[in-house]
Design goal:
Elements (H helix, E strand, L loop, with lengths): L15 E4 H5 L6 H8 L3 E4 L6 H16 L8 E5 L10 H9 L5 E5 L5 H14 L7 E3 L7
Parallel strand pairs: 3-4, 3-5
Antiparallel strand pairs: 1-2
C-alpha cells in the first residue's frame, strides 16, 4: 500500500502590511491589547491587483522548490479555498497553469475552514489508490477587501 506525507510547505504574504498601531488608529484598541490576547503583530493584505490564484501560485512554487520537485512531477492539484475569484476555470486549474504543470487533475475543495484537512484527506486517498505520482495542495484565503 502506498503512503503519503507532507514533503514541503510554502507560504506567501502580500506586501501590504497593517500593524496593530495602524489598527489602533481605526478602532479602540492598542498594540499591547492585541498582542497579549492573540499574539498578532501585523496582518498582510492582498491588493486589488493580486488575485487569490496568484497568491496560491507563489506559495505552491515555494513548496515545490523546497521539496525538490518540478512542475512535471505533479499530476494532482488540490486547492482548498472559500475565496475563489470565479467558479470557472477553477482555482486549482489556474494555479496549475501558473506553475506550468502540464496535465494535472485539478480540483477546488470549498469547505471553508475545514477545507485544508479535506484537501489533505483527498490527496492521501488518491496516493493510496496509486493515482498521482506527486501532489500539490494549497489553502489560499483572501478576506473581503
Amino acid at each position: 500500500m502506498n503512503g503519503s506525507r507532507i514533503a514541503a510547505v510554502g507560504h506567501y504574504q502580500p506586501a501590504k502590511v497593517l500593524t496593530n498601531e495602524d489598527l489602533a488608529s481605526l478602532v479602540d484598541t492598542s498594540d499591547e491589547w492585541i498582542r497579549s490576547r492573540v499574539g498578532i503583530r501585523t496582518r498582510h493584505f492582498a491588493g486589488p491587483d493580486e488575485p487569490v490564484d496568484e497568491l496560491a501560485g507563489h506559495a505552491a512554487a515555494k513548496a515545490l522548490a523546497s521539496a525538490g520537485l518540478a512542475p512535471a512531477d505533479i499530476d494532482l492539484v488540490l486547492v482548498a479555498t472559500s475565496t475563489a475569484e470565479d467558479r470557472s476555470p477553477n482555482m486549482a486549474a489556474r494555479v496549475a497553469a501558473r506553475l506550468g504543470i502540464p496535465s494535472p487533475a485539478a480540483m477546488d475543495i470549498n469547505v471553508v475552514c475545514a477545507g485544508f484537512t479535506h484537501a489533505l484527506a483527498t490527496a492521501d486517498h488518491a496516493v493510496r489508490a496509486g493515482r498521482p505520482r506527486g501532489r500539490s495542495s494549497s489553502a489560499p484565503t483572501r478576506c473581503p477587501r
